[in-house]
Amino acid sequence: MTTLPPTMKAWTVQSNGAPSASTLALTTQPTPAPPTGSNILLKVTHAALNPVDLHLLNVLPTWLPFRRVATPGLDFAGSVLAVGPGVPADSPLAVPGTRVAGSLGVAQIALGTGSLAEYLVVPAALVALQPAGITASAAAGLMGVAGQTATLMLREAGVKSGMRVLVNGASGGVGSLVVQVAQAKGAVVVAVCSGANEGMVRGLGAEEVVDYTAREPVEEYLAERFAVEPFDFIFDTAGSQAIYRRSPAYLKKEGKFISIVGGKSQGVVPFVRNKLLPVFLGGTPRPFRLLGLAPNGDSAKEVAKWVNEGLLKQAPIDQEYAMEDVVQALEKLASKRAKGKIVVRVAGDAGDAA
Ligand SMILES: NC(=O)c1ccc[n+]([C@@H]2O[C@H](COP(=O)([O-])OP(=O)(O)OC[C@H]3O[C@@H](n4cnc5c(N)ncnc54)[C@H](OP(=O)(O)O)[C@@H]3O)[C@@H](O)[C@H]2O)c1
């Protein structure tokens, strides 16, 4: 194994709250110990950010003894430096320099491990090989939480050629991938985003774009425009209770409303009502599914397969930030105006380019 420096740069959480120079600091931390079991040690080149990072900054206590030095960040791309004895010697992961990407899971986050650090130890089960032909920056953006969540949504739907789908939040990290894959599978995609992002979303494969800022209330416009051409599925990555409540006007009876936005941001009441309230008591007569991702290597591999098979051609990246600029990157994320993914360049290396 390459000899590692004794210390590394890593962002650490100083206190709970919105990202700022007082809640987060770029610090010097000990480099992780060599990997044990089925873990692998990575040199992280890129990390991608997700809305859940902001949520974790707010809620995860920093006073717990095992989280005193907590690093934020879930998504990573990097190269293998060493593997534990549990990784088979004939696995591609056992070859130093192999490029991988994925997302950390609950167990790592609970212990304060994060991807905004130069070196990272992760279970081999959480990573997938970076597909040839994409950059490490794109791999971080695609194969982490956003891409893995898109696999959940498309698996739930089983989109087939000729189906009609609506994607709300089409210009975001998850939505921009759902649009591409649904279109590549032969669906007719109608996208909801702001007018400023129309060109980008059409470029991803949307046949029609609804600018929700110009068509208020957007659910009434959808009801008028798509009553005679209803959708098979509605993918909601922006969390619109109004679009769900009005969906019988534009979602087929046998269709499904598939959401990933619930919990604290929406409140428990809409979720319970959408799932359980009978129609005769005012419930919406369309199936509502709320999906939750537990990051895993199989989902990351599915994203890589989409890339390899040409279903996912673009990795929309809003901006790539330097490691020093993580607070600004998180502030942009918090603005909810990112077009695609926000990526942090943790440490460049010679083999970064595709
Ligand atoms: N359940 C899960 O497992 C899971 C997994 C991943 C993400 N999520 C959640 O899913 C949501 C989306 O995640 P993400 O990573 O895609 O977020 P993101 O990239 O930060 O989303 C930003 C996008 O949201 C769009 N947007 C903001 N307000 C909108 C509105 N009212 N209508 C339509 N679009 C709107 C913006 O587009 P415009 O500027 O064009 O409006 C922007 O492009 C977040 O709430 C996240 O927490 C859940």
What does this structure look like?
It is built from eleven helices and 15 strands. It has 354 residues and is an alpha/beta fold. It folds into two domains: 7-144 and 316-345, Quinone Oxidoreductase, Chain A, domain 1; 147-290, Rossmann fold. The strands form three sheets. Strands 3, 4, 5, 6, 7, 14 and 15 form a seven-stranded mixed β-sheet that branches. The protein has a six-stranded parallel β-sheet with strand order 10-9-8-11-12-13, sandwiched between helices. α4 (145-157) crosses α5 (175-184) and α4 (145-157) crosses α10. The protein is globular and about 65 Å long. The structure holds NADP nicotinamide-adenine-dinucleotide phosphate. NADP nicotinamide-adenine-dinucleotide phosphate (NAP) is lined by residues 50-52, 145-146, 149, 168-169, 171-175, 192-194, 197, 212, 237-239, 260-261, 265, 291-293, 333, 336-339. GO terms for molecular function: oxidoreductase activity.
Compile the SSE list and pairings.
Layout (H helix, E strand, L loop, with lengths): L6 E7 L10 E7 L8 E10 L2 H9 L15 E9 L15 E5 L2 H5 L8 E5 L3 E3 L6 H8 L1 H13 L6 E5 L6 H10 L3 E6 L4 H7 L3 E4 L6 H9 L4 E6 L4 H5 L5 E9 L8 H9 L11 E3 L6 H12 L8 E6 L3 H9 L6 E5 L9
Parallel strand pairs: 8-9, 8-11, 9-10, 11-12, 12-13, 14-15
Antiparallel strand pairs: 1-2, 3-4, 3-6, 3-15, 4-5, 5-7
Helix pairs in contact: 4-5, 4-10
The protein binds NADP nicotinamide-adenine-dinucleotide phosphate.
NADP nicotinamide-adenine-dinucleotide phosphate binds next to α1, α4 and β9.
